[in-house]
Amino acid sequence: MFLSLSLIVAGLLAACTLAWGLTRRRRQRLLRTLGQELLLGLELMQGVQRHRALGGQDGPGAAQDRRQLAERLAPAWQAWPEASHLRIWTSLRQSPADFDGHCRLVENLLARIRFLELHLCRLRLRAPAIADRGWQVEDLGRLRGLSIRAAARQECPLELRIQLQYLHDRLLEGADGELRDALGRLAPDLFSTRGLSVPPEQLYALFTPLIDQRIEALRSSLG
Predict the structure, then answer these.
(1) Could you tell me which of 65, 109, 63 has the C-alpha nearest to residue 85?
(2) What is the DSSP string of 18-64?
(3) Does the structure show a pLDDT above 50 at 13?
(4) Residue 9, exposed/middle/buried by CB under 10 A (0-12, 13-18, 19+)?
(5) How many other CB atoms sit within 10 Å of the CB of residue 66?
(6) Angle at Cα 217 formed by Cα 45 and Cα 64, nearest 5°?
(7) Cα angle value 13/16/18 (rounded, 5°)
């Protein structure tokens, strides 16, 4: 009887160990899947933001940059699980000047990123932060896109100046030195009815590295 009881206990322990091992492996696979999808989401968000900025520029150089960007993003779009986002992106490629359409797609991507992050954080037992920081990056991305469009005009409409001033002031709060310097390039023009004095190409070159640095920091936080 004692031997039978020992065998039963040993069998239960083996079953529990096996179940724990399977659960652990499933958890690890799920963590990897969520992490990979989050990286895809950040890559696509960065690409849509860049396409929006390039869409505010005229000329063959910007058009070529948009084509090359779309080619680089193609594998990520094919791997992204939200087919509706790909349909929107396909439409935006034909209308690169559609600022609001790009903004809506970025919002959709950030919503999906938040959903994925909440699942990941529940497994890792830590507070979410990536989506919120992604929205901060989007403020900078919108400022880049709007400032490029304002610089392309001879006169800056009041509504556009109000949007620029709002984003400028939001970003200035807690800005590091590099971002503060970049915002300082815009500040003198925000109260003028004329177009911005900084050319579109220079604005793109000014803000793009700052955006890329922040998105790279988000990627690193997933490690």
Answers:
(1) 109
(2) HHHHHHHHHHHHHHHHHHHHHHHHHHHHHHHHHHHHHTT--SHHHHH
(3) no
(4) exposed
(5) 19
(6) 40
(7) 110
Task: Compute the average pLDDT of residues 55-68.
Answer: 93
Q: What are phi and psi of 189, to 5 degrees?
A: -95, -10
Which residue matches tokens 């989401």? Answer: 41
Of residues 133 and 26, which shows the higher confidence score?
A: 133
Q: How far is CA 119 from CA 38, 111, 113, 126, 216, in A?
A: 11, 13, 10, 11, 21
Q: Are the CB atoms for 168 and 143 separated by under 8 Å? A: yes
Cα(69)–Cα(57) distance, integer angstroms: 15
Q: Which residue, 95, 183, 96, is CA-closest to 139?
A: 183
Is the Cβ–Cβ distance between 190 and 183 less than 8 Å? no
- State CA 67 to chain mean position distance: 20
Q: Residues with Cβ < 8 Å from 58, sequence gap 6 or more? A: 152
Which letter, b or e, does each residue of 189-209 get, where b requires 16 or more Cβ atoms within 10 Å of its Cβ? bbeeeebbebebeebbebbbe
Q: Looking at the whole model, is its pTM more than 0.90?
A: no
Q: CB of 44 within 8 A of CB of 77?
A: yes
